[in-house]
Task: structure prediction
Amino acid sequence: MQHSLRRLLPVLPFVSFLMPRPATAQTNAVTGGNGDNYTINGASAPTLTLQRGVLYVFTLSGIGGHPFWIKSSLGSGSTGHFDTVVTNNGAQSGALFLNVASNAPSQLFYQCGAHSGMAGNLNVITPAAPTPRLVFVNVANFITVRSTGTNGWNAVPEFKCNPTTGSWNAVTGFTNRYAAGTNTTTFNRLDVFCGSSNVFIRIRNQSN
Result:
């Protein structure tokens, strides 16, 4: 959708995402259950879906003799243990922390270090990105663009002189401020590159 800004600067807003936004920590209660399987959040040996960019806390209670391991492959003892951004792997009390990285494998497991059959699946997914909207554009001595955003995201402006040809160019020297759900991005006019009547802008949102 093309926006005519005064008589000088038509703008073509376009928003895309590179990474999902990190979410807040999620807590899961782990107990020994019936001795044959872990009980997590009241369910016996459930398959859990984890999102990349989210910190998961597994609180361990009553699992003495059943060390709780996060693994990339199943095996006896600590075989296959997955220690990337995992704290207290193999613990039997307290809490285990799993901060699922953006490059985490799509399949992980939890498994008892003493009983190999006491295990379950952890499916790792990339969450759907939020949908931002361009809500304000102002052209004066400099350009100000406001777009809906989320904390942890940065709005990156790019431009081209002809919307149908050429690649998008990076805007240098811009500032971006996030407050109250809105990114406010400010940068110098681009007349020096495209003249005063044929500049097209898009906002590319990416995680910090």
The CA atoms of residues 72 and 108 lie 5 Å apart. The longest strand covers residues 153-160. The radius of gyration is 24 Å.
